[in-house]
Design a protein that fits this description.
By secondary structure, the chain is an alpha/beta fold. The chain is built from ten helices and 14 strands. It folds into two domains: about 200 residues, DHBP synthase (Alpha-Beta Complex), CATH 3.90.870.10; about 90 residues, Rossmann fold (3-Layer(aba) Sandwich). Helix content is about 30%, strand content about 15%. The relative contact order is 0.15. Belongs to the SUA5 family. Keywords: ATP-binding, Cytoplasm, Nucleotide-binding, Nucleotidyltransferase, Transferase, tRNA processing.
Length: about 325
């Protein structure tokens, strides 16, 4: 698929106006969000939404999140607003919380992936919000990457993955969170986080004053819920802190990249016969780690290592989103071109 010769980098007010024009014309444009760059198309134009699936190589039965400019747009997509929704909106919107609601009666739209539910959120990135407000519509916008590959957190990643597939990306710098939004199911009395993200289940519980479950595994059709996902080209292996140095020493091929966060491990790695550029330090706190994860893996992968070893992070509640993404990045499933 090479419909476009180049991928234009849009900047400033003129870039926003051009992005709006392209979206009105039914094209896809990569836009910055506070989570990752999203591949946006007018969610009210089925043919435009179909271009998202084609550009990403994403199966059409995988639902998409619809980004809306404010709460008044909920009624355009959902049949009703649960009692908890207003509290959540007041606390977390605009922001990285996606809610799943029952669809509006008669809504026949490819964004649902054939389901009777709809995923909605109000993003907080000022450029994305400006585009939404100017369009006065919803934008379907999954991550702006090829299906199952690393989500982009800077424009250069979009350019590398989607040149020839979309016309433009709106420059918005590096994303604030670096991990996709939290997805919360509001379609039943049991509140469930179906994808961990920047907003934790504990924060949602505190907001609502009721329990929220986070199933480790589930079969719900929501974005990101496939075994192998968020993957660089080099295979990723998670290694415990106290085993990492030995694991590297036991490898005959030393063209191994390493992503580590603990100072002790980094000191040990510096004493090994590895190229310094193949060792990357990532933040030791959950938020900082999440923000840097995709970009750091991308940078290491550009060096074409045979493997990427990742020091296994902590497993506390704060680290759920990071561990969710790493578990999928380390799944060895064939990714077709």
């Amino acid at each position: 698929m090479n419909e476009f010769e180049t991928l234009e980098l849009l900047t400033g007010d003129e870039g926003i106006a051009q992005a709006v024009k392209l979206l009105q014309q039914g094209e896809c444009v990569a836009l910055p969000t506070e989570t990752v760059y999203g591949l946006a198309a007018d969610a009210t134009q089925p043919e435009a939404v179909a271009k998202i699936f084609a550009a990403k190589g994403r199966p059409s039965n995988h639902p998409l999140i619809v980004h809306i400019p404010d709460e008044t747009h909920i009624a355009r997509w959902a049949d009703s607003e649960p009692a908890d929704l207003q509290k959540l909106a007041d606390a977390f919107w605009p922001g990285p919380l996606t809610v799943i609601l029952n669809t509006k009666a008669g809504l026949n739209n490819p964004v649902t992936g054939g389901k009777d539910t709809i995923a909605l959120r109000v993003p907080s990135h000022p450029l994305f919000l400006k585009v939404l407000i100017d369009l006065d519509t919803g934008l379907a916008a999954p991550s702006a990457n090829r299906y199952k590959q690393l989500s982009p957190t800077v424009p250069e990643q979009v350019v590398e993955q989607l040149t020839g597939r979309i016309p433009a990306v709106l420059e918005g710098g590096a994303c604030e969170h670096g991990l996709e939004s939290t997805i919360l199911d509001l379609t039943s009395d049991e509140l469930r986080v179906l994808r961990a993200g920047p907003i934790s289940a504990a924060e949602i519980e505190q907001c609502l004053g009721k329990p929220v479950t986070t199933p480790m595994d589930h079969n719900e059709a929501v974005p990101g819920n496939v075994k192998a996902h968020y993957q660089p080209n080099a295979p990723v292996t998670l290694v415990k802190t106290d085993e990492l140095t030995q694991a590297i020493q036991s490898e005959s091929n030393k063209n191994i990249a390493v992503l580590a966060y603990s100072e002790l491990v980094l000191a040990e790695l510096n004493a090994l016969d590895l190229q310094p550029k193949l060792i990357k330090q990532i933040a030791s706190d959950a938020a900082g780690y999440g923000k840097g994860l995709y970009y750091d893996l991308y940078c290491l992968d550009k060096l074409t290592p045979t493997k990427i070893f990742v020091e296994t992070p902590p497993v506390s509640d704060d680290w759920q989103a990071v561990n969710n993404r790493l578990s999928r990045a380390a799944s060895f499933e064939f990714i077709p071109e």
